[in-house]
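Lecture 7, part 2: worked example. A protein chain together with NAP.
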Amino acid sequence: MNELRYVEAMRRAIALSLNSPAFDVNPRVGAVILNEAGNVMAEGWHRGVGTPHAEVDALNNLRAAGLLTPGLTAVVTLEPCNHTGTTGPCSQALIEAGIKRVVFAAFDPGKTEGGGRFALESAGVEVIGGILADEYQPVLKPWLVNKFSERPYVVVKFAASLDGRVAAADGTSKWITGEDARHDVHARRAASQAILVGTNTVEIDDPELNARKPDGSLYENQPLRVIVGERELAKSARVFASMVGVTGGQTIQLRTRNLNDVMAELWNRGIRQIFVEGGAELESALIKAELADEFLVYLAPKLIGGPKTAIGDIGVGTIGQSVNLQIVETKPLGADILIRAIQKEN
Ligand SMILES: NC(=O)c1ccc[n+]([C@@H]2O[C@H](COP(=O)([O-])OP(=O)(O)OC[C@H]3O[C@@H](n4cnc5c(N)ncnc54)[C@H](OP(=O)(O)O)[C@@H]3O)[C@@H](O)[C@H]2O)c1
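Predicted complex, written out as C-alpha cells:
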C-alpha cells in the first residue's frame, strides 16, 4: 500500500481521537482500518475508561458491518496496548482479527501497557511506528503529564501586542485583542476544568473570569475559578460573585506562592487541566518551575512598548537555555492571530 494512505488515515485517526473524553484516566485514541487498496473499512475511538480501546472499537465496527477479512491494516494513534486492564490486550485482538499491518503514531510509554509492537511483530504482523507522531503529540500530551507527573496539565494563555506587551505602562490591558479572540478565550474557558490567575490580576483588572457566549449569556459549564497569592482580596471583587443556572464556577483562593502545593491541591480536587489567564508574574513563575505545558498566545497587530512584557524572568540567562516550543496551531481571529505551542520534547 502507498505510504501516503497511512498518513492520510492517521490524520483521520487523530481527528477521531478528539472524540475521546478530554480528561480521562485513559488517553484519547482514534483508529482507522484500511484494506490493501487503502480504502477505509471502519473507524473507532476510545470512549473512556472501561470501554473498548480505539482499535477494538474499530474492529467491532468492522465485524458489525460484515467487513472483517484477513490482511487489513490498522492505523491507530497510539501503539496498541499489551496488557489486560479493564479490557483485554489490543495487540491480541488485532492478531486474532488477522490484521496484517499496524501503523501507529506515538509509542506507548507505559511500563505495563507498552510493548504491543513486540507482541505484534512476534505474531508476524508488520508494524510501522512514529507516523505523524508530532501531530498527535498535542492530543496525547495532557494525558502524559497527568499520568507521569501526577499533576494537572497547564495551559498558559496571554493576549499581547506584536511587541509582546500584555499591558500599558499604567497597567491597563482592556482590550488588547478584538472580539473574535475574546470569544475564542471564552469557549476555551468553558471547555476547561479550572482557570488560574494571580492576585494582582484580580486587583488590577477585577475580572469576572466566567465563560460567556458571544451573545453575553453564560456557558452551561463553568470552570473552577482559582486565585493564587498570599494577600487578602476584597470580597467585593467580581470574581467572587456566584453564578446561577450553571454547572461549576465556584471561586477559591489558594493563599500560597508555592506552585507545587497549588498543583497538588488542584490535583486532589480532581482537576486534570488548568487554563492560566495571567498575569505575567504568575505565568513566569509557572514557566520557571517547569509547570507550563502549553501556550495560547493571542497576538494583536498593535505596539505598546514599555515594561509590561508577557513573560518576565524565567531563569534564561543565555540563549542556549531558551524554553523551546513546538507550534501546533495558528488561527487568524479577526485582526488578531492565535498561536498555540507546546513544550518541545527533549
Ligand atoms: N494581556 C493579558 O493576557 C493579561 C492577562 C492577565 C493580566 N494582565 C495584566 O497583567 C497585570 C497583572 O499581572 P502581574 O504580573 O502584575 O500579576 P499576577 O501575575 O496577576 O499576580 C502576581 C501575584 O501573584 C501572587 N503569586 C502567587 N504565586 C506566585 C508565584 N509563585 N510567584 C509570583 N507571584 C505569585 C503574588 O501575590 P501575593 O502577594 O498575593 O502572594 C504576586 O504578587 C495587570 O496589568 C493586568 O491587566 C494581562
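The pocket of NAP is lined by residues 158-159, 166-167, 171, 173, 176, 197-201, 204-205, 228-231, 257, 259, 277-282, 285 (CB under 6 Å). Residues 220 and 246 are 5 Å apart (CA to CA). Keep this in mind for problem set question 3.
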